[in-house]
Amino acid sequence: MSAALPEDAAGEISGRKRTRRLRLTRVPAPLLAGVVVVSFFLLCAIAPEAIAPYDPIAFDYTALLSPPSLAHPFGTDQFGRDILSRTIAASTIDLQIAIFATIAPLVIGTLVGLFIGYYGGWADILFGRLVDLVVTFPFLVIVIAIVAVLGPGLFNMYVAVSVIGWVFYARLTRGEVMVLQQYDYVAAAKVLGYSQARILFRHILPNAARPVLVYWMTDMALAILLGSSLGYLGLGAQPPTAEWGVLIADGKNFFSQAWWITVFPGFAIVLCGIGFSLLGDGLADLLDVKR
Amino acid sequence: MSARLTEPVLRVDNLGVRFDTPRGAVNAVSGVSLTVGAGEVLGLVGESGSGKSVTLRALMRLLRRNATASGRVIWRGEDLLAAPERRLREVRGREIAMIFQEPMTALNPVLTIAQQIDESLVAHRNLDERARRARAVELLDLVGIPSASVRLDNYPHEFSGGMRQRAMIAIALAAEPSLLLADEPTTALDVTIQDQILKLLLGLVADLGMAMILVTHDLGVVAETCDRVCVMYAGRVVESGPVSAVFASPRHAYTHALLRSMPSGEAARQPLTPIQGQPPRLDRPIVGCAFAPRCAFVMDACRAATPPLMLVGEGREAACLAADRLAALETVA
C-alpha cells in the first residue's frame, strides 16, 4: 500500500469532466418542452420591450376594444392598449411572483425538514402538530387573511405565502430524510467518521433534493395562479401594473363585448403553468438515475 | 488459519443493547463478551434476529435513537461506548471501518466512486489532490476493479453488485484501518461473487495486517474464512472457540443442531434436518436457556436458569448444560 503516483493521474482528472458532459445528452422530452416554454416566458420577462410590438401602457383612442387583428393579434382594451404587449409585459411580474413567492419557502422549508428529519425528537412532534394546523385551513384562505392584515401589495403577498408555504417543503424533506437515514450509505458516512454537517449536506441533502426540486417547479406554477388570483381580487399586484390576474380583472366588465381582454392573459397563465409542470416532470425523469 | 494468541485489540465486555419501542423494551443483545486479536478474523454467526448485526453496530455506536447500549467496548484500552463524540469520530473510519450487506444502498448514488473515496482520504489522510487521485486508483486496483482509473469516475449505478461491494471495501480501506467490521458482506451477492469477495477480504486482512469481525448467517463462509467463531442465539453468545474445533465437535446444543441442519455433500436428495420451532421473542423476559424449547438435549435445569458460559476446552466456551453429553456423542460417533 505505498502511495506511488501513476504517470497518467493528471490525464484522468480531465477525463472526469468528459463523463459529466455526456450525461446531459439524455434529456427527456417533457423537460425539453418545459425548458422551451419557460425560457420563452423568461425572455418575455427579461426584455418585454424587445418583444412587445407596442408600449403596454400607451393609450390609442383610434383602436378602442378592437378585436384580434393583424395589427393587434390579441386585440385591444377599452383604452386601446395592446393586449399582446400587456400580456408580455405582465410576464415580468408573474415570473417574479413565481420565484419570490417560492424561494423563501424552498430554502427555509428544506433546511427545517432536513434538521427535523435527521434529529427528530420533540421538534418533530411540534412540527407534526404545526403541519396538522396548516393543512386544515385552505391555503388561499390563510394567504388572503394574512394579506388582508398586512395590506394589499406584492411584497406582503410574498410574506404571506412564505409564512405558510415553507411547511410543505419541510414536510416533504423531512419524510425523505427519514427514509434516507435507514440507508447504509448514511451509516457508512457516520462510520467513516464524517462530521454531522458533512453527512447532512453532502450525503443526505442531495439525495433528498429530487422530490423537493420537482415540487418547487409545480409550486411556481401554483404561485403564478395564486398571484393572479390575488391580483384579480385586488390584493396582489396593483393596477396599472400589468399582471395576468389584474389583466383578467380589467377585462371582466367587457367580457360580453371583448372576450379577448380576459382570454389571452388566461392562456398565458395556463401555458406558463404547463411549462413549469413539464419542467418539474422532466426534472423528475432526469434525476431518476437510480430507481 | 490458526488462532493467533496475541493481545486483543478489541475487547467487548458484557455488551447489552435494549430498544425501547412503543410496545415495550426489546433486549436485542445481552451479556455479549468477545475479543479480537490483531490480524485475527472472528466470525459472528446466528440466525436472523440473533443480535449479531446489532452487536456489530453497537461497537461503533451506530444504533438508532431508541436504543441504549450498556457494557464496555474496549478499543486499544479505551471504552468506545463512553468516548466523547469527537474522539469517536477519530476512531471511526481511521482505526475501525465497516462494510455493509446491501451494495445497492451502501454507496451514495449522487457521488462518483472517485468522490466517495476522495472524501474518506480527505477526512483521514494528509494528501494533496494529485496524491489522493493516485491513491484512489491504487485502492480500486487493490480491490480488483479492472481499469480502475476509468471506473473511478463512474456513479454507483453504473457498477454491478459485486463491483459495488468492491468499491465499498475500497472506501472503507482508504484510511488503512486496523479493524474491519463486515456486516454480512456477501449475503446479497451470488455464490461466485461471494467467493471472490471473501477471498479478497481474506487477502486484504493478511496483506494489511487488519483484524476483521465477519457477521454472517452462513456457516460455510465461517468455515472458509474465520480463525475463531462466536455463535449467537437470542441476543447471547452461546458458544465460541476456534472454528475447526467448534465445527468438528460443537459443545452447545444449538451449534450442534445448526451444523446438523446443513446439507451434507455426500447424500443428495436426502431430507434436511431443520431445527424445529421458532427463536424466542425478545420483548419478553426469557427464563432459563433461550434454546430450551427447541432443544433435543433439554433437561429440567435448562429451564430454571440461564446457563453461564463455561470453559469447555482450550480457548473454547459454551453456555450449555449438555456440553459433556455433546462431547461424549462425538467420541462415540
UniProtKB/TrEMBL annotation, chain A:
Pfam families: BPD_transp_1. It is found in: Cell membrane. The keyword Protein transport applies. CDD domains: TM_PBP2 (cd06261). Residues 91-280 form the ABC transmembrane type-1 domain. Keywords: Cell membrane, Membrane, Peptide transport, Protein transport, Transmembrane, Transmembrane helix, Transport. It is a multi-pass membrane protein. The keyword Hydrolase does not apply. InterPro entries: BP-dependent_transpt_permease, MetI-like, MetI-like_sf. The chain crosses the membrane at residues 27-48, 97-118, 130-149, 155-172, 212-237, 257-280. Belongs to the binding-protein-dependent transport system permease family. This is ABC transporter permease. It comes from Alsobacter ponti. The lineage of its organism: Bacteria, Pseudomonadati, Pseudomonadota, Alphaproteobacteria, Hyphomicrobiales.
TrEMBL record, chain B:
Residues 10-259 form the ABC transporter domain. Pfam families: ABC_tran, oligo_HPY. It is a peripheral membrane protein. Keywords: ATP-binding, Cell membrane, Membrane, Nucleotide-binding, Transport. It is found in: Cell inner membrane. CDD domains: ABC_NikE_OppD_transporters (cd03257). It comes from the Bacteria. GO terms for molecular function: ATP binding. Belongs to the ABC transporter superfamily. This is ABC transporter ATP-binding protein.
